[in-house]
Predict the 3D structure of the following.
Amino acid sequence: MKTGWLRLFLALALGSSFVLQSGCTYLTKRGNDAADIVNLGITVTPRLKPEFAFYFDFFSLTPIGYANLDNKMFGIFNRNYGLMDYEEESYGAVVYGREMKVAGEFNPKDPHQAHTDQTDVKERPKFDIGLGGITSGENPPPPLHYLECDRAVHLGWIGIRNTMRPFDLVDFVLGWTGLDIMGDDNIAADSVAKE
């Protein structure tokens, strides 16, 4: 009986020393991984002129609908939190579409926001999506876009934006063991380019 408690104590001590030795960066990385799981927010148009979005995109393969927004969003989007400017120009007709979503600060080193060979871009790129856009377009989305489901509904002056990233949930869980399957733990904060 005492041997079981001793093993548990040693395991907890070892785990605690690992976390404490790595400092706050370990927990910051876990927080960033958690923030990557979902983009979720309430969109609000702060003007009298109404705006419209009814747009769904499933794994960048079947974009359906239209979104043209230039407003505010309260929520979380690509590791940005709180009230932020939000812009979206997206459309899709199942086999072809284009997509551009802007909220908060742009980080070209984030694999959700740009291709790994686009780390020097200053503006958010527009991506060609849908089977037709991916195969014949000039700028297909980064690989991580094929692992997310995107939804935006905004009628008049209020709406909701939701992007689910199931693969980032796996990255978050495995991150507690020290694995970084998405390769996004070391995205430097100083690489964020303000617009």
User: Anything to note?
Assistant: Helices lie at 2-22, 24-36, 130-136, 166-175. The radius of gyration is 20 Å. The chain has one domain: 13-191.
